[in-house]
Amino acid sequence: MSEPSTEAKVGAAESAALDLANVSDEARSNALHAIADAIEDAEDEILAANEKDVEAGEEKLAAGEYSQALVDRLKLSPSKLESITEMVRSVAEQDDPLGETLEARRLDDGLELYKVGVPIGVVATVFESRPDALVQIAALSLKSGNAAILKGGSEASHSNRVLYEVIRDATEGMPDGWAQLIEAREDVDRLLEMDESVDLVMPRGSSAFVQYIQDNTKIPVLGHTEGVCHVYVDSEADLEMAADVAYDAKVQYPAVCNAVETLLVHEAVADDFLPGMVERYAEAGVELRGDERVRDVVDVDAASEADWTQEYGDLVLSMKVVDSLDDAVSHVNANGSKHTESILTEDAERAGDFMRRIDAASVFHNASTRFADGYRYGLGAEVGISTGKIHARGPVGLDGLTTYKYYLEGDGHLVASYAGEDPTPFLHEEFDGEWVPGRLSRTE
């Protein structure tokens, strides 16, 4: 049997989305638990497929075509699969975002307006080499009642295919076609033309890639771009704690978008902080690059102007000495990607000043940038981290995959009553109520 066309897959997803929006939370959550169980049962098959991707990736790494960070993101393991199934079950246990009354307003006696959470509809995602991203996106889409069109990178094609098949087979009770896998690059171009059928596209990749998506579609785009993240060690920092946080932010897992790429150090503490920090980084194999003032204190390679806007995704870090908190803010706002920034200081006023002035989706005080994550935020998982400002920002979980409808319950009300020379005035009273079909004014 030939593979269905992209148009057929999108059409099936569009039809499924209408039905999935009305599937009960219990049924959607049960399906998620079934996915987790199925992934556990298929561990050997998944790891065997992943080994093919990793072997191919290592060959391309040796040929200079792939980075070590990309190959690291490809790898699955029994412990990684365990964390994936834990994530799926965590999503299942999240509160149902559908049908929630967000606002209730009485326009007049017996005329009530409700703002109620609903799915977006058909959500398409184009994502990078991490196979676990496919599971995260599918799980969040199902819980939020959205049909999902999934396009992973070709470097993870074996892993993605098996994971998709496991998910599809585990959710036979869900509307047929709710999850679709596309694999060819040309399929993405066809998908981008289908703005009447696809409600949202979420690219995860470089700024250039996200820009390409935005330039080639009328579909709303929720972009997940690079993470050029900073840690700023302030003049009032606890230097021992600062060293621990700065180390964690780079070394704990350097291949991800919330790892720190530039360390800023106030000139008042540079002499005390940098030597020990550089030694600690060096022991972990971090390649260090510093500006001239850093190199006056420690022996590291010279940083170029390009380093300040670089997402390394690896054990590489640029460092800069700044004269003041103002200089730190200016550097971050000029060179960051609006992802995640952190200030390390014991001065609450300085911390607040930094946090208010930084333009980023997440700004931390005395914490590692690695906390910028949907699971760690308690969102269950994330489909990505949005560095834009509309309609969702930061780690995008269930809330970012929903929109709302207005439901108006009346009892023969006419606009004519509220117009003319002697109109009936509106009440416009907020009240604590949940929408119930046919409720009308029966809120007592």
TrEMBL record:
It is found in: Cytoplasm. It comes from the Archaea. SUPFAM superfamilies: ALDH-like. Its EC number is 1.2.1.41. InterPro entries: Ald_DH/histidinol_DH, Ald_DH_C, Ald_DH_N, Aldehyde_DH_dom, Glu-5-SA_DH, GPR_dom. One of its GO terms (biological process) is L-proline biosynthetic process. The keyword Transport does not apply. It holds the Pfam family Aldedh. GO terms for cellular component: cytoplasm. It catalyses: L-glutamate 5-semialdehyde + phosphate + NADP(+) = L-glutamyl 5-phosphate + NADPH + H(+). Pathway: Amino-acid biosynthesis; L-proline biosynthesis; L-glutamate 5-semialdehyde from L-glutamate: step 2/2. Residues 32-59 form a coiled coil. Residues 6-286 form the Aldehyde dehydrogenase domain. It is an enzyme of class 1 (oxidoreductase). One of its GO terms (molecular function) is NADP binding. Keywords: Amino-acid biosynthesis, Coiled coil, Cytoplasm, NADP, Oxidoreductase, Proline biosynthesis. Belongs to the gamma-glutamyl phosphate reductase family. Catalyzes the NADPH-dependent reduction of L-glutamate 5-phosphate into L-glutamate 5-semialdehyde and phosphate. The product spontaneously undergoes cyclization to form 1-pyrroline-5-carboxylate. PANTHER family: DELTA-1-PYRROLINE-5-CARBOXYLATE SYNTHASE, GLUTAMATE SEMIALDEHYDE DEHYDROGENASE. This is Gamma-glutamyl phosphate reductase.
